[in-house]
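[retry 2/3] DNA polymerase IV (Family X): previous attempt timed out, resubmitting with same input.
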Amino acid sequence: MMNLRDTLSDIHALEEELLNFERKYGIRSETFYVAYINGEEPEAENWVLDFGEWASVYKTWLTRQAEYRNEVQKIQKNSQSLSGLVRKTG
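[retry 2/3] DNA polymerase IV (Family X): success.
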């Protein structure tokens, strides 16, 4: 299991990948993913690999988001503040 900082770093890296796909194809990842899982086929054959990768990255991003939320909830269980979450990087 990743720690909170590693999970957040992974989320940011995945978001960069998602942004690249969104810029390339002109739609948000959430819109793409719903169509993809509902079986919509790519318009062009050369999009097939991208669409498979995009869906995989988005699914991983969703998983990391859930992991992050769960970890934050554990840390904040006894506190409603950011105490214990905020760590300054050196």
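[retry 2/3] DNA polymerase IV (Family X): The radius of gyration is 16 Å.
[retry 2/3] clearing retry counter.
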